[in-house]
Amino acid sequence: QAEKIAEIPGVDYILGNMEKQEIAAWVSTGEKRDIPVIRTGDISKDRSLGLESPDIHSGTTRAFLKIQDGCNHACSYCIIPRARGRSRSLPRARVREKIDLLVEEGFEEVVLCGIHLGVYGQDLAPAASLFDLLRDLDREPGIARIRLSSIEPNELNDGLLDLFAESRRLCPHFHLPLQSGDPEVLKAMNRPYGPGDFVSLVHRIHQRMPDAAIGVDVIAGFPGEGEGAFENTLNLLEGLPVAYLHVFPYSRRPGTAAACFPDPVPPEEIRRRAGALRKTGTKKRLDFYANH
Predict the structure, then answer these.
(1) Please, are residues 46 and 65 in contact by the beta-carbon 8 Å criterion?
(2) pTM: predicted TM-score of the whole model, two decimal places
(3) For residues 132, 133, 138 and 142, what is the CA-based torsion angle, rounded to 10 degrees?
(4) Cα–Cα distance for residue pair 265/271, rounded to 1 Å
(5) Which residues of the chain register pLDDT less than 50?
(6) Structural contact between residues 223 and 265, judged by C-beta atoms closer than 8 angstroms
(7) Residue 61 to residues 64, 102, 141, 147: CA-CA distances in angstroms?
């Protein structure tokens, strides 16, 4: 892929995921090149999270802090494990240091981000967990609000729910990737839960935290998704107390298992299904607003 990109007129540098922290150093030279510089290491060999990765800020009150990158799972539609490598975490002490710096800069909220937050800390020595990190951050003075970007439904356990329900610092906001409400489609996606597990989790959250905002990722038109399977997804979501949907029309990614699956859904049908899900998502969002 790097060689193909190098053929595009005007390209001077091609940097991989491990090298992207060098972007500023390369660009600051202002040098135009006849032959592009290609620096793309083997991301699968990376075992640490860059300590100096830049933080992204939104306005003056909310900051986004990446504490985890990569993924060890292999969902059949997803290229992330090949593009981002294996899971790796920012050490807990470094997370604390970065949050303290954000507080000094005047930020009142930090969103902890990652590709697979639920496995945070498993690669560290000694090993840690997302629960350990959140419990420590919740106990110590500092940032006023802490939010998670997303978490896998099978990794949002009762211990984490209790922690969020009892905290005044952890925001009751859970963004959960469902992807499909059909058991056979979930199996083909290589997702580690069933529709019933997801439904049970959402109701447990709602029971513990009635005002919680629950967002859902869902994919429309996965290969082999018949009309009945799509209706299962739509009906499941319509019956749940969720606040919004992020709808993704299925997009074939070369190099993934699903790229070779039979029975692709026609593009016009993918668009129709995505539109129906977005319509449901709009209603859910307006209902959530009205309840507050």
Answers:
(1) no
(2) 0.86
(3) 150
(4) 10
(5) 51
(6) yes
(7) 10, 10, 17, 13
